[in-house]
Amino acid sequence: MDFRTLGNSGCAVSTLCLGTMTFGAEADEAVSHEQLDRFAAAGGTLIDTADVYSAGVSEEIIGRWFASRPSDVTEPMVLATKGRFPLDGHPNGSGLSTRHLTRALDSSLRRLGLDSVDLYQVHSFDPHTPLEETLRTLDGFIRAGKIGYYGLSNFTGWQLTKIVHLARQLNLAPPVTLQPQYSLIVREIEWEIVPAAIDAGLGLLPWSPLGGGWLSGKYQRDQRPTGATRLGEDPGRGMEAWERRGSERTWTIIEAVQTVAEQRGVSMAEVALSWITARPGVTSTILGARTLEQLETNLRSSDLALTAEETATLEAASDLHATDYPYGALGIEQRSRELVGGR
Ligand SMILES: NC(=O)c1ccc[n+]([C@@H]2O[C@H](COP(=O)([O-])OP(=O)(O)OC[C@H]3O[C@@H](n4cnc5c(N)ncnc54)[C@H](OP(=O)(O)O)[C@@H]3O)[C@@H](O)[C@H]2O)c1
């Protein structure tokens, strides 16, 4: 397992992170604890959860794992959680206000049974709360010793740029990470969000790196998903819904991943995960798994380095073919400058 720092911070984390959205949902407590044990044994050190995962149960399961394992297993772990989305239905039960974030963090710490978390992520932008209020709250959490660092999730380029500059202006702690959806299927963030994050020194923590399971090769064209799979259980689920994601482009990408996987004699999941972990700006790829076997497969991606030719095959198949302006060929040409001639 390799290690990189959380963006511009000095905190080192493994390049694979254990996502825990399945904990308390598809994975019961015993399987979740097996996944955590296996991840720790493989040298993984970053765990990602959120208050809303299984309505708080994911955090509780992680808390009981921390409480029941020896300190040499738990001490290396860097724990990340999130707040922003509602667990209560009232108007102040969500958002990035001081009121909500203070209650949300305290509730997360209570469920985790810990005094602090290493990384606290605001789960998405809040159009109703001034960024200064959110920044002062997060800076206060750091000063109070309740969090080590904070990060952003699902922010756009202008939003993260604004928050980084405002933090500097107000002499408050800046964010260190951005957690966006990112995979061979979802590459739109490369146009504006990834360059903004790199410019701001934020490390990327990609979520849904297998596109919700699609890139493992588990779904077949013209065959509606069945059985104990995300879309077998709920074809309309989230961003990965069968009708929404099952485009010609997706099937082309899946074929390219399959080709590379067969040539290398590895699983498709390993290929897709190896590709994303090697992308510019990425600190740690967040793995999702229902079973221990899936996690075993996904962890093996840390041993796979794709060649330039294999990477080109995957990137040609997943190219979004942006129209000329602003993100296509003519827009890029307008922003380029060749340093030729003159002295
Ligand atoms: N910040 C955010 O807004 C946000 C949003 C979503 C997720 N996340 C984080 O990112 C993590 C990962 O997201 P994700 O779970 O959507 O990631 P993903 O890797 O795209 O999808 C994971 C799912 O794919 C299937 N799968 C995984 N490995 C497989 C394998 N080797 N072979 C076959 N199927 C496999 C499993 O689903 P089935 O077996 O059930 O089909 C698994 O639950 C989450 O746990 C969470 O920590 C963050």
TrEMBL record:
Transmembrane segments: none annotated. Pfam families: Aldo_ket_red. InterPro entries: AKR_Detox_Biosynth, K_chnl_volt-dep_bsu_KCNAB-rel, NAD(P)_OxRdtase_dom_sf, NADP_OxRdtase_dom. SUPFAM superfamilies: NAD(P)-linked oxidoreductase. Keywords: NADP, Oxidoreductase. It comes from the Bacteria. Belongs to the shaker potassium channel beta subunit family. This is Aldo/keto reductase. It comes from Jatrophihabitans telluris.
